[in-house]
Amino acid sequence: MKIEKTTAGQTMTFAVEGRLDTLTAPQLDGEIQGKLDGVTELIFDFVNLEYISSAGLRILLSAQKVMNKQGRMVIRNAKPEVKEIFEVTGFNDILTLE
Amino acid sequence: MLKRGILHSFSGRRYLSMLFVSSFSMVAEILVMLICKIIASNLIGETALAAVTMVTPLFSFVLFVGACIACGTTICYTTAVGELKPEEAAKHFGQGVLLALFSGVVLFGFFALARDAILEFLGVPPELVMEVLPFYKWFLGVVLVLPVGYFLSELVYADGDEVLTFWSYGILIAAEVALSLYFVDSMGIAGLGLALFVASILFLGVLLLHFFKKSNSLHFKLHVNVKDIASVFRFSVAKSSAYLCFSIFTFLLTRFFLRSCDPDSMPVLAMIFEVVELGSVFGGIWLAAEPLVSVYRGERNLIGVRRVMKYVNESILVEGVLMTAFLIVWAPFLADLFHIHSTSILPEAIWAVRVASIGCLVKAFQRVYAPFYQHHNPLFSMFIVLMRDLLMPILCCVILGSLYGSYGIWVGLAVAPFISFAICVVAFLAVYGKKYFPLLLHRGKDMWKAESCEVTPQNIVALRDHMGDYLRKKNVENSICNKVMLLVEELGMHIYDVNRNRKVYTEFSVRIFQGKVICVMKDNGVLQNMTDLEMVVSDLRAYFVTALMAYQREKLYMLTMSYNRHVFRFDRESWA
Questions:
Q1: How confident is the model at residue B448, as a pLDDT?
Q2: A35: distance to nearest CA of chain B, Å?
Q3: Contact between residue B366 and residue B280 where contact means Cβ atoms under 8 Å apart
Q4: ipTM above 0.90, yes or no
Q5: What residues in B contact A83, CB-CB < 8 Å?
Q6: Which of B463, B537, B541, B555 is the best mutation test for A, with the most CBs of A within 10 A?
Q7: For a Cys staple, B340 with which of A17, B335, B369, B508, CB 3.0–4.6 Å?
Q8: What CA–CA distance (Å, rounded) separates A37 from B327?
Q9: pLDDT at B315 over 80
Q10: Residue from A20, A21, A65 whose CB has the most chain B CBs within 10 Å, to mutate
Q11: Residue B521: enclosing H or E segment and its boundaries?
């Protein structure tokens, strides 16, 4: 999995490429945990994300909880297979998808 | 990278755990009469030994009847389980129970009413009849109980409760020894019979405990059907005819020996019969493999069958060599066990055991492959048994015995397995050709892909990727590939989560069939039905699994041989 992080002012963007699963989720978690201070907009660009499992959803859920207190979190460009996972698990009601 | 091999695969580990118990149970079957003979010869006398030996063919006959019902029912039952037909499996079990009970009663009645005729037919000399009768009286009780006990031992074992099966045989042997030693003092040979009867009751009692366990999937459904009974007997032909053939072989060879050889060497013959019977230990290898193979056959999973048979071949080689070495080294001890101390026959006894051990390995292959073939061709299976247990041994023994006396008989027993093996191989090649040797499986029709691993996060992800790559190579739609991969990872990791303190193995198989993908996931962890929407949700992953299952339309869970088996079918509209 490749993670490209860009910061512009109070907006932080993570472009995630590959698979967000049991083994790779800790890598993304390491990039996010304790690093959201002062961030008011957190964007996940999933245009190149092929696959997400519950381990990945856990990371998104934790991030969403933090951002609910200090701003907003958005998931962009998720592929149909990834969107289907959000729908099946009901996460499409918790996350903001664009 | 997923490790392969018997110690790293689900089916390999399952097979190994069953192999120990199955081998033990085969040894226990032989030990039952052997213990009687040893105690008779050591504590009562040679006439008692002769009396017990006379009843041995009857014991083999009862085992033959028990095997007719038990072996075939086990195959029918496990095949129905493999095909995901629990109702049909319950019917086979119910029918088997009724047949076993019925046969016990019929045999009891027959042996009781026709006692004198039977003893005359067996050639029991008049001076031995009074010695046989007290033992025979209690032996009738064994005849009543044994068919049901044998049946239940096979089914409980096939249901994955090898621990209880082990204990049931352990208690049978231990109780027989302890009670024999206790009763023989006051009751003589009758005490031996009583000990065997009480031990049989205890054996049955232990097996009944399986029905109170959570892992029990044996359910009784009242059912008797001529077609199903015919299937049962068809699948029993190899093992059951082995008992019958051995029974006839011992009867004929005893008669020939009494006419043509020195009667002082009779104890050597009695001992050699036990050595020949030791060969049935190799049947334990097939006993361990059969439930696994039958389930794979029910699933039409030829890769699974092939994999298990590879483990079987390795086991045959190891056990064959070990048995040969054991008999060669311990021949003097065996002679001592049979109270053979006379200087005139002791060297012959030791020599006979060593010579008879030579054919162990080839006999082992025949022991295993005869029942394997009965699924495809019961007649060919019976042919192997006839060659192995009756025709070749009796021909070789009689021909060489006529020329060289008792030493010729022992050599006959050594060469017979090789001749029968060669004949069987030639017959197979003549009927089926080289292409299908030896497993009779169509190479080109493998539609399954199966992989197995220890359940760890790294292995589960590797398994997931392996399956995903395979499905993509087979041009399966990307959305289906993703769903299957998700299934592997989420179910695999859920299994990991609920089994933190133990080593668990899983096997994941996929089959692409008429545009659909069928997945079977097996694991030997804590029993749990992951398709159950009422499953306790204790974390996000469990919630995720429940959510997946709510959307997955075609899913099934079946407790199989005390392991979890989940089946899913995917197509474009899998998720509602």
A1: 87
A2: 23
A3: no
A4: yes
A5: none
A6: B541
A7: B335
A8: 78
A9: yes
A10: A21
A11: strand B516-523
Residue A12 forms part of a structural domain: yes
CATH code: domain of residue A24: 3.30.750.24
- Count of domains for chain A: 1
Q: Using 50, 70 and 90 to split pLDDT, how confident is the model at B575?
A: low
Of the partner residues A23, A51, A80, the one whose CB lies closest to the CB of residue B458 = A23
The residue ranges of every structural domain in chain B are 10-436, 447-570
Per-residue pLDDT tens digits for B451-492: 999 999 999 999 999 999 999 998 888 888 999 999 999 999
Instruction: Check B540 against A57: CB less than 8 A apart.
Output: yes
Per the domain annotation, does A6 fall within a domain?
A: yes
Q: Is the pLDDT of residue B419 over 90?
A: yes
Specify if A34 maps to a domain. Answer: yes
Domain that residue A19 falls in? 2-93
B66-76 residue pLDDT tens: 888 998 999 99
User: What fold, for B447-570?
Assistant: Heat Shock Protein 90 (3.30.565)
Give the model's pLDDT for residue A29.
Answer: 93
Whether A54 and B482 lie within 8 Å, measured CB to CB: no
Instruction: With respect to residue A31, please indicate whether it lies within any of the assigned structural domains.
Output: yes
